[in-house]
Amino acid sequence: HDEIKRLLNFTLFSKEISFFQYLSCLLFFPENYHWWWRSFFVSGGSAIYVLAYSVFYFYTKLDIDEFVPTLLYFTYTLMMVVTFWLLTGTIGFYAAFFFIRKIYAAVKID
Fold first, then answer.
1. Which candidate among 33, 40, 42, 96 keeps its CA 20 to 30 Å from the CA of 87?
2. Most confidently modeled range among 5-14, 60-69, 99-108
3. What does the mean pLDDT of the chain come to?
4. What is each CA distance from 11 to 4, 5, 6, 65, in whole angstroms?
């Protein structure tokens, strides 16, 4: 089962990178020089899903009624979501950056 999980994670990860490279091309070709910020924020946007699922999990699966455990749960969730956003945003930015560098390295100016 571990090999199937790794293969599925790798497949999803590679599909995410190719999707964000495509998005970066759409943003970059109209000569939008703010493409790097947009590629960072769009690829980091999958952290919103993690946040939504954490809130859903809190209300449906957990039985926490007190204030302090709720505060701890959402504080750690927010820390995890920000870290996930930075991680996926950085990966998406570098994927777009090297993809665009590769495209312009192939262009010959005569």
1. 33
2. 60-69
3. 81
4. 10, 10, 8, 39
Paired tokens of 31: 């000569």
Instruction: Give the separation between CA 110 and CA 98, rounded to whole angstroms.
Output: 23
- Side-chain-facing half-sphere of 14: CA atoms under 13 Å: 5
- Predicted confidence band of residue 59 (pLDDT cuts 50, 70, 90): very high
Mean pLDDT confidence for 41-69: 89
DSSP for 54-66? HHHHHHHT----S
In the block, tokens 């859903």 appear at 56
Residue 103 phi/psi, 5-degree rounding, is: -60, -50
Residue 105 tokens, joined: 């390295």
Q: Cα(54)–Cα(78) distance, rounded to whole angstroms?
A: 9
